[in-house]
């Protein structure tokens, strides 16, 4: 069931109407039932997988939290994590590992007939698995108390607004909101509507329209000229951002109108000028999950610079593989890790550079623009790797940019550039103001006339220029 569908519109009207008239306990029961319907609309069989994970976590939870010694707590923590990881690895990565092992054996002269799974990947499995695992980690750290009721814990894992594409809510952040009574106020409702409208604008107007520019280039069998490839990469940078941020904002808005506080998953990431800042702004729920439950337990930056570099590289490799069972995602993760390592390694030089530019009295705005331009293109290089279907395509596209840049059809290139500008100008305008005011919700603090104008423009662009058809969100495949 897609957010951008008539089916979901009718679904949320019924769910929200019931939510407003029920007591807290019955709200939770109804939301759990609604979440099962929402997820089961794709494939009801995969509900069983989710509830195997939920049941294992729920049974192990008290034994982790109330264990008399850390050894017992570690044992049940290991059991809970193993159940979750086995399900994730089996359904998402089994074919990937089998095919690569087969290739390796074939290279060594051994012929095997591998068995691969002919099944659809359970939608959102990476998201809800990481959310469920956060519960076990937080219990072990005594940061959350195991809930008494099974249904309450099940709702924490399955809460439908952010079930299949995040944000990944940690147990210490979402579970207390499930357990206590929530209030719905006029202000929360208005804020929720703002996030829902902005999320739909990002998804349907920006991302889905840009998909029409991106897909023909990346699905082409013949090479393209470099400018066409570069414009497609620019378009994809905004497509993937608005597609994913759009889903996250709709989820945030749906949670807000029910009294839930779902974290902000994107905070103007393309205004970052270095990889550390970027990962504090992009997919914040995943980057913070990897930081809290992987990077810091590995030692973080506490054991010297070399180990810090190792921890950064390993964390980003796993983050890349989390996105999908493909070597292109592994390469993307390695690239992001290399950016982080290079930035950390060069920090003394960056400090000297800043002091030098300060002595030269260079305009701060000009310097910021130069850094922004440079780093944005580093991110775009990563998006080319991320979107490409193979290593060969990455090589062909990079070669086109470096050696065959000029387009054969200049008019078509200008039309593509104009289309990208058409679908991103309002987004960029709003985000410049959000960045300048350091306030993602600044629209809500404006006069009624300004808020009405903002809503009118969003509705106008959505209704008359929004992409036709109902496109699935990109991150559903992860």
Description:
The two termini are 16 Å apart. This protein has two domains: 6-182, no CATH class; 187-477, no CATH class. Helix 4 (70-107) packs antiparallel against helix 5, helix 8 (186-218) packs antiparallel against helix 17 (410-437) and helix 9 packs parallel to helix 17 (410-437). With 478 residues, it is an all-alpha fold. It is globular. It has 18 helices and no strands.
How many structural domains can be distinguished in the coordinates?
2
- Could you give the distance between the termini? 16 Å
DSSP helical segment count: 18
Radius of gyration over C-alpha positions, nearest whole angstrom: 24 Å
Which sequence of SSEs, written as H and E, runs from N to C?
Answer: HHHHHHHHHHHHHHHHHH
Highlighted features:
globular; 2 domains; 478 residues; mainly alpha
Question: Mind sketching the topology for me?
Answer:
Elements (H helix, E strand, L loop, with lengths): L5 H16 L2 H20 L2 H20 L4 H38 L17 H16 L9 H9 L12 H9 L6 H33 L7 H32 L17 H7 L2 H12 L9 H19 L3 H19 L1 H13 L4 H24 L3 H13 L6 H28 L10 H18 L13
Helix pairs in contact: 1-2, 2-6, 3-4, 3-5, 3-6, 4-5, 6-7, 8-9, 8-17, 8-18, 9-15, 9-16, 9-17, 11-12, 12-13, 13-15
């Amino acid at each position: 069931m897609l957010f951008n569908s008539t089916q979901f519109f009718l679904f949320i009207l019924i769910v929200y109407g019931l939510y407003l008239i029920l007591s807290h306990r019955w709200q939770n029961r109804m939301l759990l039932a609604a979440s099962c319907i929402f997820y089961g609309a794709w494939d009801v069989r995969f509900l069983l997988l989710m509830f195997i994970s939920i049941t294992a976590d729920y049974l192990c939870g008290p034994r982790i939290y109330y264990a008399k010694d850390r050894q017992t707590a570690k044992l049940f923590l290991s059991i809970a994590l193993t159940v979750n990881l086995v399900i994730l690895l089996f359904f998402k990565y089994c074919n990937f590992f089998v095919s690569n092992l087969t290739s390796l054996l074939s290279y060594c002269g051994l012929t095997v007939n591998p068995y691969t799974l002919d099944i659809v990947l359970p939608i959102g499995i990476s998201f809800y698995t990481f959310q469920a695992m956060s519960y076990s980690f937080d219990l072990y750290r005594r940061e959350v108390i195991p809930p008494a009721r099974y249904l309450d814990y099940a709702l924490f894992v399955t809460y439908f607004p952010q079930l299949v594409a995040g944000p990944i809510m940690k147990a210490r952040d979402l579970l207390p909101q499930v357990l206590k009574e929530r209030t719905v106020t006029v202000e929360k409702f208005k804020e929720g509507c703002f996030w829902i409208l902005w999320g739909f604008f990002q998804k349907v107007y920006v991302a889905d329209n840009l998909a029409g520019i991106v897909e023909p280039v990346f699905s082409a069998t013949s090479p393209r000229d470099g400018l066409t490839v570069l414009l497609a990469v620019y378009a994809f940078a905004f497509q993937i951002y608005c597609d994913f941020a759009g889903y996250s904002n709709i989820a945030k808005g749906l949670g807000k109108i029910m009294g839930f506080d779902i974290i902000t998953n994107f905070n103007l990431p393309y205004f970052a000028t270095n990889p550390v800042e970027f990962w504090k702004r992009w997919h914040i729920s995943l980057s913070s999950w990897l930081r809290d439950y992987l990077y810091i337990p590995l030692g973080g930056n506490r054991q010297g610079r070399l180990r810090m570099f190792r921890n950064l590289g390993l964390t980003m490799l796993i983050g890349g593989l989390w996105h999908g069972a493909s070597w292109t995602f592994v390469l993307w993760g390695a690239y992001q890790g290399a950016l982080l390592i290079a930035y950390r390694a060069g920090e003394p030089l960056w400090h000297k550079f800043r002091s030098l530019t300060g002595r030269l009295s260079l305009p701060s705005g000009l310097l910021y623009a130069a850094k922004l331009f440079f780093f944005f293109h580093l991110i775009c290089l990563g998006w080319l790797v991320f979107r490409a279907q193979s290593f060969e395509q990455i090589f062909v596209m990079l070669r086109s940019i470096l050696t065959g840049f000029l387009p054969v059809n200049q008019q078509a290139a200008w039309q593509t550039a104009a289309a990208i500008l058409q679908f991103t100008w309002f987004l960029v305008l709003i985000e410049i103001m959000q960045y300048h005011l350091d306030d993602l919700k600044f629209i809500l603090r404006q006069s009624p006339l300004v808020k009405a104008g903002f809503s009118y423009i969003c509705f106008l662009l959505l209704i008359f220029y929004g992409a036709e058809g109902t496109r699935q969100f990109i991150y559903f495949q992860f």
